[in-house]
């Protein structure tokens, strides 16, 4: 997939999100509002990877949480054995719990 195709896919994804939800996308972990420029779209399914992705194949994250998610996911054989969608959902709820228990001043730590 070229970067141009990926950009088009992101634009289409954003339009679909606004249409369906009537608001801007937010990070799945920290609820930070995302823009086309700042959002990372994570693949929760690779079945249609390469430009044929459906709306529900992608999940929005801020760059920091996307990195954090992959930091755990890519190194964990347990998560690798699960379906990508199930692993992502579990990781999201784990990261959300971590976030909500962390002190607010730890944002940049
Ligand atoms: Zn986030
Ligand atoms: Zn990802």
Structure classification: mainly alpha
Major β-sheet strand ordering: 1-2
- Straight-line distance between termini: 34 Å
Shape type: globular
Gyration radius (Cα, Å) is: 14 Å
State the low-pLDDT regions, or none.
none
Ligands in the model, by name, code or SMILES, are: zinc ion
* Mean pLDDT score: 92
**Total number of helical segments?**
4
Topology (elements, then pairings):
Blueprint: H1 3-21, E1 40-43, E2 58-61, H2 63-73, H3 77-81, H4 84-101
Antiparallel strand pairs: 1-2
Helix pairs in contact: 2-4
Bound molecules: zinc ion (2 copies).
One zinc ion is lined by residues 27, 29-30, 32, 61-62, 64-65.
Overview of this structure, please?
This protein is mostly helical and 109 residues long. It has one domain (3-104). Helices cover 49% and strands 7% of the residues. The protein has four helices and two strands; from the N terminus they run αββααα. It has helices at residues 3-21, 63-73, 77-81, 84-101; strands at 40-43, 58-61. A two-stranded antiparallel sheet has the order 1-2. The N and C termini lie far apart (34 Å). The model has no long low-confidence stretch (mean pLDDT 92). The structure holds zinc ion (2 copies). Residues 42-43, 66, 70 line the site of one zinc ion.
Features:
two-stranded antiparallel ribbon, binds zinc ion, mainly alpha, 109 residues, 49% helix
